[in-house]
Amino acid sequence: xxxxxQVVRPWxxxxxxxxxxxxxxxxxxxxxxxxxxxxxxxxxWLLGEPPQPADNVATPARVALGKALFFDPRISxxxxxxxxxxxxxxxxxxxxxxxxxxxxxxxLGRATPTVINTAYNTQFMWDGRKKSLEDQALGPMKTPEEMxxxxxxxxAMLQGIPGYRAMFEAAYPGESVxxxxxxxxxxxxxxxxxxxxxxxxxxxxxxxxxxxxxxxRGYKLFTNPAKGNCAACHKPPNFTDNGFHNIGIxxxxxxxxxxxxxxxxxAVLKGAFKTPTLRDIxxxxxxxxxxxxxxxxxxxxxxxxGGDDRSNLSKDMKPLNLSAQDKADIVAFMRTLTSxxxxxxxxxxxx
Length: 351
What we know:
It is found in: Periplasm. By secondary structure, this protein is mainly alpha-helical. The protein folds into 3 domains: about 5-30, no CATH class; about 55-190, Cytochrome Bc1 Complex, Chain D, domain 2 (Orthogonal Bundle), CATH 1.10.760; about 200-335, Orthogonal Bundle (Cytochrome Bc1 Complex, Chain D, domain 2), CATH 1.10.760. It has helices at about 20, 60-70, 85, 135-140, 150-160, 160-170, 180-190, 200-205, 215-225, 295-305, 325-335, and strands spanning about 5, 25-30, 245, 275. The chain has a two-stranded parallel sheet with strand order 1-2. A two-stranded antiparallel sheet has the order 3-4. Strand 1, helix 1 (about 20) and strand 2 form a beta-alpha-beta unit. Helix 9 (about 215-225) crosses helix 11 (about 325-335). The longest helix is centred in the first third of the chain and has 12 residues, at about 60-70.
């Protein structure tokens, strides 16, 4: 029999490979344990199809228009910045920076959130000031420090390009080229940026060999209220509760960020920020609303010590009794939440 060299998952048990060896395959492995099989309770983490609003159900024409607009810098105030400038598909649909950079090159106050799985969100922006993905799409355009879009000029530009007029008509027949249809198209495209086929998802769906025993231990620590307690906020299925929490991030004196409190002035929300999804988390460093943590290890250390600024901590924040091995296991688990990287080719923009 013709022999093949095959590299299998490094956590596969030797006994699982007897059949392969008997078939004449050369198998390269490392000895390690398989994770236990998933139970019915574990399937709560599996995501369904992204929800869509009744007035903006995705169609190929809407997604194509939204993609063009997402990558088109001409809709910004000076024609140099697009949505993709800060939400770069090559950088986890974020920008890899501690905090974002505005249209004039100035440093913004908060990190750029990822677009990944925003389709499942019910709150948008770090402080929740936007209530729909369509509304969120216009936010950076209307912010002078970000895209600084002159909508009168931008809509006139789009209307004046025959290719764009045709795309708008195909996507939203009978509707005008407007702020509303622009926002709807971008939102329709952003709803295609979905992560729900990670190794953890494969394990939860029944593939026992998709994660290792160490990664499974990290999962159990992550969900255990007496240990990691991470799932108190990073809830199934999208690893977020769409809520706001003060997790004890310290700020330089005089540069405190009140977060959700500015939108809803309730004492408990002072310094509280939206819980981000953890899906594809290893692609979206740095972490926290101000980019204070460079690595997942730093994130876990922050939670283990119970935060830094404890003046208005969330009730779910407390020092954790985690060993070095526990921390490593939790980080290993979070790395299983990365789906195959979703690339995005640059669209040919209408001229």
